[in-house]
Write a structure and sequence with these properties.
This protein is α/β, with parallel strands linked by helices. Helices cover 46% and strands 14% of the residues. It has a single domain, classed as Rossmann fold (3-Layer(aba) Sandwich). It has a seven-stranded parallel β-sheet with strand order 3-2-1-4-5-6-7, sandwiched between helices. Helix 1 crosses helix 7 and helix 4 runs parallel beside helix 5. The N and C termini lie far apart (37 Å). It binds NADP nicotinamide-adenine-dinucleotide phosphate. NADP nicotinamide-adenine-dinucleotide phosphate binds next to helix 1 and strand 2. The site of NADP nicotinamide-adenine-dinucleotide phosphate has 30 residues, from helix 1 and strand 2. Keywords: Oxidoreductase. GO terms for molecular function: oxidoreductase activity.
Length: 255
């Protein structure tokens, strides 16, 4: 699949799934802009991308800050002249339940990162995507469809993201812009360590998730990147408003 001469903006590309998407799209010939807050991690991803494709544009930014969101879209278009694909991937999980004292603080932070930032970045990118008849790939979660405990804010943010994606797919369709969503199950990334857990605890949690999937496996980030590449490419020209589960069967239950 070729994305030669296409311009792709990937948020949350300093790590995990976003880093794999940046790499995969660059391999396919795209010019990629990668976004995250941690400059050291972005630098490493940038070096890896430059080995397989065009040197990426690195944007150190916090997607929850409106000024940063404006800079993300403006700098990408200034550097590459166009925008064909927006991948809204930046996201955080939590570890609190609804009775926790800090429930609302966590909820506000999760919604700001996982949903509000996506809405604002999409709004800012819309005129550029309409110009190129481009598309959007949103990275949601299986927990947007089936709930889990101690993560109500995350579940709500991803369910909201799924329905937001379907609603804007309708707004964009007459303008030739497609919008699709990927809902991964467990994927081996830094997401648990980024919650403050040790690597040993993260490994234990991933093992529990692995046992909870019918396929008894954890995905590699590249599996999600492959699906994102397909959805962003012309092969998916007739696909919009879809939610693709890539969850090793987790949502089937059967535990
Ligand atoms: N791993 C899984 O099992 C799994 C399952 C289902 C869905 N997902 C979803 O997949 C997406 C990627 O997660 P991941 O597993 O790859 O986790 P990860 O390794 O923790 O990566 C998360 C990325 O989001 C970025 N990010 C977080 N908050 C940000 C902010 N305010 N501004 C800018 N960037 C921000 C992080 O960059 P900085 O830290 O540099 O800011 C990092 O690049 C998320 O939306 C997540 O919900 C993951």
């Amino acid at each position: 699949m070729s994305l030669i001469n296409k311009v792709v903006l990937v948020t949350g590309a300093s790590s995990g799934i976003g880093a794999a998407i940046g790499l995969k799209f660059a391999e396919a010939g795209a010019n990629v802009a990668i976004v995250g807050r941690k400059e050291d991690k972005l630098k490493k991803v940038s070096e890896n991308i430059a080995k397989v494709g065009n040197k990426p544009l690195v944007i150190a930014a916090d997607v929850t800050k409106d000024n940063d969101a404006q800079r993300i879209v403006n700098d990408t278009v200034k550097q590459f002249g166009k925008l064909h694909v927006l991948v809204n991937n930046a996201g955080i999980a939590s570890n609190v339940d609804i009775t926790s004292e800090n429930a609302m603080k966590v909820y506000d932070n999760i919604m700001a990162t996982n949903l509000r930032s996506v809405v604002y970045l999409t709004h800012l990118a819309s005129k550029h995507l309409i110009e190129t008849k481009g598309n959007i790939v949103n990275i949601s979660s299986v927990f947007g469809q089936v709930p889990t405990n101690k993560d109500f804010a995350y579940c709500a943010s991803k369910a909201g993201l799924n329905h937001f994606s379907r609603a804007i797919a309708l707004d964009f369709a007459p303008k030739g812009v497609r919008v699709n969503t990927i809902s991964p199950g467990p994927v081996k990334t830094d997401i648990i360590e980024n919650l403050g857990f040790s690597s040993e605890k993260a490994a234990a949690i991933f093992n529990i998730w692995k046992q909870a999937t019918p396929l008894k496996r954890i995905s590699d980030p590249v599996e999600i990147a492959e699906l994102a590449l397909f959805l962003a490419s012309d092969k998916a020209v007739g696909i919009t408003g879809s939610t693709y589960l890539a969850d090793n069967g987790f949502s089937l239950g059967g535990r």
